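job 3f2a | input accepted
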Amino acid sequence: MRTTLAINFRNIFVFSLLLVVAGIMSVKAYSQKAVLSLDTSSIRIGEHVQLRLNATLPKSATIYWPAISDTLTSKVEVSSKSKVDTNAPSRKDFTNYSQTIVITSFDTGFHYVPPFTVLYSYPGDVSKHELLSEGVYLKVRAVEVDTTRAIRDIRGPIQAPLTFAEMAPYMAGAAIIVLIIGLIWYYLWRKRMNKPLFPVITRTQGPPWQIALQSLDSLDDKKLWQNGKIKEYYSELTDIIRHYLHQQHGIEAMEMITSEILAAYDMAGLQSDSRKLLTNILIQADYAKFAKAIPQRTENELCMSNAKQFIDETKPVPIVAEVKASESDSLQTPESQVKA
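job 3f2a | predicted structure (340 res):
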């Protein structure tokens, strides 16, 4: 009986030990899990297929994900790849890492995608451990061609609508051409009408005599002759008088010399008393501009005074209509009328 109990006790111990070892091996196997899988193992040449790499490690482990280049092998190319994603598996103390890689191939046949190596380490351990996935096979088929039918494109041309960005350069070019044609037409039209290219906008500043007096005041404020600019002073003064005669009295004085201005003044039938003022102004200016004479201070001031007096005497005088009242005795009211 003792022998039987001893045997049973030994069997129970061995069985328990095997359970512990199996548990440790299962945890270790779970913690070192890496899977490489394909959506489909067979594609046509040039088609895309998703290759997924998954690795499950304890949360305490530091993972070093493999770098993926543009090609996996000489026959398998990488079209795109996603970021490494993480999620929690059924075991809360583990983390699942995954990445999706879109691959393609332009060579028919069976192509082997080699396994990926995922490195990881534990806290306090400077060494890196390797987690190796399994390799997968990818079959690439040729496109089946029906030799009984005519050769045509795999897909017909796709009609895409024109976008504004595509039409913008053509619209801008057309607008520039229309603008150039419009400018040419405007230029020829203005030239045929004998008008300037751009209309001159003038502001109404008042009657010519008022503008002339304002210009003389502005000239006086410049103090030209006081600063030695005698010629400039008399040139501007006579220009003001010439403009006034042209705009106010219709005398083309801008293109006339002194004698012609005086003759035109006489023919215009203007005030004879003011002719002496005009003569003194023009002759004094001719001496200063052409004979390089240097008038005295009193002569310069007198010339300005004569110009203002000339304009004041020759400006139009407003006509006030006088209304004569009827004689009181010519007005009779009905009451004042006496019947015979």
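job 3f2a | The CA atoms of residues 257 and 263 lie 10 Å apart.
job 3f2a | closed
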